[in-house]
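Let us practice reading a record.
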Amino acid sequence: MIRIFRWLVRLAAGLIVLMVAGIALVYYFASRSLPDYNARVAVAKISAPVEVVRDNANVPHIFGATDNDVYFALGYAHAQDRLWQMTMLRRTAQGRLSELFGKRTVGIDEVLRRFDIYNLAAASVAVQDARTTAALTAYAAGVNAWLAQINEGALGRGAPEMWLFNHAIAPWQPADSLAILKLMALQLTSQLEDEVLRARTSLIIDNDRLRDILPDDPTTGVAALPDYASLMPDVPAFAPNTRMAFDPLSPLKPRELAGASNAWAANASRSATGSTLLANDPHLGLTAPTVWYLARLELQSGGVIGATIPGMPVILSGRSTDLGWGLTSAYVDDQDILIEEVNPENPDEYRGLDGWVPFRKRDSIVTIKDAPAITLRLRWTENGPVMPRSQFDLSTITPPGHVAAIAWTALSDRDTSMSAAVAIMYARTAEAAIAAGEGLIAPAQNLILADRNRIALKTMGALPARDAAHQTQGRMPAFGYLPQNRWKGRFAYAENPEFLNPDGGIIGNTNNKTVDRDFPYHIAHRWGDTQRINRWQRLMQARGVHTRDSFIEAQLDPVSFTARSLLTLMGADLWYTGEAAPDGTPERRRQIALDLLSAWNGEMNEHLPEPMIYAAWVREFQRRLIRDELGPLAAEYTHPDPVFLERVLRDIDGAAIWCNVIQSAAQETCTDIARQSLDDALVWITENHGTAIEAVRWGDAHKAMHDHPVLGSTPILNWLVNIRQSTSGGDHTLQRGKTIGTGPAPFRNVHAAGYRGVYDFADPDSSVFVTATGQSGHPLSRYYDNLSTLWRRGEYIPMSLDADLARAAAVGVTQLVPDD
């Protein structure tokens, strides 16, 4: 027996040694791709030595003899830290994910192939201006120089993910950078999904109720439109979803998770410092690493510093010594669905303006890992690419014998958006930056500017020129063979909204409506915000003058104007009305919840119970309102709409009828629904977060989900690559943390400010910025999540152009020298 025991001990010890050795071996190979930031490297295609000084947060400060040398080094630094991210963005734009991930991503590849984003980007290289072409070429050479270093030095294939998904890495090309910008345009628009949802809802309810559930901005007046059934009588009232399930690898985000952002500026008259201020926090889906990468470029015209996206040689939000610029999604109505009739006698033709016209066609082969390749027959009409019925739920709104074509401003083969972005980076005044923005096609953005004397806002991007007689005003699909439904080109850039140095001294945007124009001169039917703007206005007007710190305070503000407004209405007949009830009963839980909410100021603080009670209550309230009218389609309305709920609770245009349950004999009131939905919410809370209502924490439900798009769901590895954090804020706070809205944990924070920056031109080097995770994309790097704790706590790092300050605490200095 003792001998057996000894052998068991030896066996166990041996297994432990083997496990340790295996872990050490894995660590060795994975760590080989960690870059050495203290290195002297001889490279081709630079004119003189270039220095990359990485400050104590690992932000590269790049100094070179020419701008092209600086762009070369930026490409080199991006590839050092984010090679996997860059190659994945390129592969996504090319529609080639399935080569690595198999059948899982075939649907994603199909959409990208049909949009033909990469080929359009490749064609657009020829129309960039000379400065941008040189920057793209130098940047690509820098990326390729790092790829050469990987091959020569056996540097772990460049990223640890490459060991799991091994593939040859093609040299970087200028077209790759343009394709990533087009990919961002796809991520930042939801107009297509909006049209489909409006059409599907119109098939079920009448136009009066449609204006309730899909409301316009409250200040907008809209003329009556036809219901979709009258336009497309052969479409069934309801058809089940056919679109693919959301995948973290997909650039196609749910409509509620399209781009968002905040930006505002103050001129000298409203600044305590005597010069201008600017704050910007663009919002995208949370990932690990974050999309954003901080960098400083010392160009011949002066230093610029701010946020880049690896793969593109441009600072998208940042500052120079004279100008600061920020971006917010403009929510331009830049997509239309055109229903094309197919010739019943010849499926290769569709109805044009003057009869049957042949589809433009091309075959595209999709290679699939561990499965046979498939051939896609790509088709185009005069209006745009044809999408299959299986995508975007198009089968639910497309009549038999028809197909859906997509008109979209980003589908241009003469897209000068990158040239515009580079030109803005070189601008030194607000007027010059506005002029530079004319070349931007997509994604449409609001450009917020502050030079040393003035502030400005300009909407950039192509605005489609629609016919005033368009059948649906671009709100729903329409027949593509009718001339009034086709685009007539684009409006002149001068027609885009513009505000320069307004009298009030403050300018800003939270994705809210910027102008009130009638169709077809409108910017959008559905804007990205109707709520945060109210809180922002209050904070801006609460002070006569502002400082950098007051802008930071506003950027991090967690108070919900929406909660304050809706709770007053939802609880109007419930406050202090309950009778005594024993502990543990639903009545007692309701009393506790109402007592907490009655004294709450709307602060969505992660440590408080009230935000969770409010969020769960308003979610259940909307679910009870719509499930009887919409049936299965109610599942598409994943997030409560404050404007809809206010219309119902105030009975605007008879909207209180939503409170009556159609199938019941009784006549329910909104008070009944509010009471029942509060009980529903409390049941959900007790089942998921404990029975002590007053002890639950919003942050336990509202965790920021910085997940790795590929490895985030892999057991064991997910503990290494994912970053999860308790956060304050919510769907409608300036410190925005958009919830996922679905699944067993609907309040997870999945869409927030991946970058925050505040720029002070009285003392530019006191400006600050931060990203949500860190600079490195390597999970074993200490810079993978070095900024995440600061981001969560609302702290920043210096955003200085002082070279001595960067060198003083540098974590490394890379010297690139010409390879003679």
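A brief commentary: The chain is about 35% helix and 20% strand.
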